[in-house]
Design a protein that fits this description.
Layout lengths: L17 H17 L7 H16 L10 H10 L6 H14 L12 H15 L1 E5 L26 E5 H15 L1
Antiparallel strand pairs: 1-2
Helix pairs in contact: 1-2, 1-5, 1-6, 2-5, 2-6, 4-5, 5-6
Amino acid sequence: MRPERTDGTGGGGLLVPMAWMYAEYIADELLRTGDLMEPSTLEYRAGRDALALTIFLSDGGVADALPATRMDELRLLTAYGTAWRRWVCERLDALAAAPAPDGVRRGPDPDLALARVAWRWLEETELLAADLDAIGPAPWEPVDAEEDLEWPQDTAQVWTPAWQLGLPLGHLAIHLY
C-alpha cells in the first residue's frame, strides 16, 4: 500500500505492508479471544502465522468485522485433511507472478515478502509435540483389559513442522470465536 500523500516529492513513497499487518492483527485477535495458549509461546506464533497466511492468501479483503461467511471460509481452509500446505504454496506463487494493480512494477511487494517470511518460518521450524498416534488406541479399537489406562508419564514426542501445530490451533480459535 502506498501512502495517500507524497507532498510533491515525485511519488515512490515508502511501501507499507498494511494487508499483511491487518491479517496478522485479525489472526492475533482470534487466538487471544480463544485463550488457547500463552502469546509468548512458539505454538502461539505458529497458530498466528498459519491463520494470518490463511487470511492474507484467501480471496477477498478482510472486513472490519469477520462475517459468518468469512469465518466459514476460514474454517474450511484450516480444516484437518485439507491440502493447506499445497494451497499456501500455490497462492504465494500466484501472488508473486501477478502484475501490479496499475501495471507498473516498483519492486517487491512488502505484504508478500512478510507472508513469505512467515511461511518459511512455519516450514523450517520444528516444534516438539506429543505423538498423537503413540498415545493409545483409537476409540473404536478394542482395548486390552490388562493395559494400564492411565495417561503415560513419558508421552512419546516427535518433532513436527510448526505449520502442522499452528493450523489446528488456528482452526480451533476460529471455532471458538
